[in-house]
Amino acid sequence: MNILLVGSGGREHALAWKIKQSPLLTRLVCAPGNPGMAALAETRDIKTTEVARLVALAREIAADLVVIGPEVAIEAGLADALAEAGIPCFGPTAAAGRLESSKAFTKAFCDRHHLPTSGYRICDDAPAAKAALAHFGPPYVIKADGLAAGKGVVIAPDRAGAEAAIDDAFGGGFGAAGARVVIEEFLDGEIGSLFALCDGKHSMLFGWAQDHKRAFDGDEGPNTGGMGTYSPAPVFTLDLVDQIDHRLVRPAFKGIAADGAPYRGVLFVELMATRHGPKLIEFNARFGDPECQVLMLRLESDLVPYLMACATGRLHEMPQPVWRDDDAVCVVLATEGYPGPAKAGSVIGGLDQDFGEGVVVFHAGTSAGPNGTVLAGAGRALNVCAIGDDLAEARERAYGAVARIDWPQGFHRTDIGWRALVR
Prior knowledge:
The chain has 423 residues and is an alpha+beta fold. Strands 10, 11, 14, 15, 16, 17, 19, 22 and 23 form a 9-stranded antiparallel β-sheet that branches. A 5-stranded parallel β-sheet has the order 3-2-1-4-5, with helices on both faces. The protein is globular, with a radius of gyration of 20 Å. The model has no long low-confidence stretch (mean pLDDT 95).
């Protein structure tokens, strides 16, 4: 098979790493890719939102399958254009992708299809948003309606902080994504990330993990796109997984199909395990980042047949995926200042060494510099991942590798997996 993988982040590097292992693969092309992906596949300098150029590239390489990594390509309608061209695609249409691209749409969707989620108010201007705060108690949750690279959420401890977050959103703090905001009820419990595949009709659960959203140790600091993950996560008991499947996953796929947009691809269900059962925090229309990284390390089965089955309506023919018994950990290294203003262009050293058994380093936000150097972007740059017989061994391997990377301008959390270790 010839496969085109769209994207340039850590999620896409992990997908490329796993796809590369498939005996079905003939040729892998990544657009635009990154320095880490360039070691595994051909790369083409085409942005993820340049739909016409990506379709042309798929035709050029006679792609048997296109795999969409990032949400911006989904929102841009890449899956729609590939369908018109008759090219199989793993990734939902723009209409189905509204489950991620608009939080207001998703909240209304949950109401229509009776999915458990938090209380909310949708607001189109700052005065309305501030007035809506009266319906909630602290801490206050303020979300940008649109795509904000995982950073469009503020959890404010008091009314003054909430009003400041509202002013920031409507003042352009989240760009176009903040032109509308959603005020939500704060959910108390333990967060988790569950994944499910769908081919338009049939669905299948496809692993789970736990993310660490806050920037600093102890779950302190601003929300980010994710500072680290581990899998499996003890919060996902068999009973909880069954509840999520029947209360969230299946109703979501059935509901979006009933709305005229059958879902093909992977659905990321971010949820809170509360004393009243699982409640939806948000949907993402793609593999999580950095959740995908630990899932790919633990997936024993060949990934490619599952991607193709989703794209061609044959998921019901696939066996349940096989997962390794090992634990996996991902530690994110980001540029100082992230998720706020940060300076791009610092040199990351030490990436050409052997980090030892069970360790894989994925590039998340890097570029090629002069004389073979690797340069960091202004956000998350590397995902240092490891697998081990248990969580403690996986953590030891991952943090041992982190210590050997030469990057003074970077930072990371030192407590990834702490909830599981406390258990």
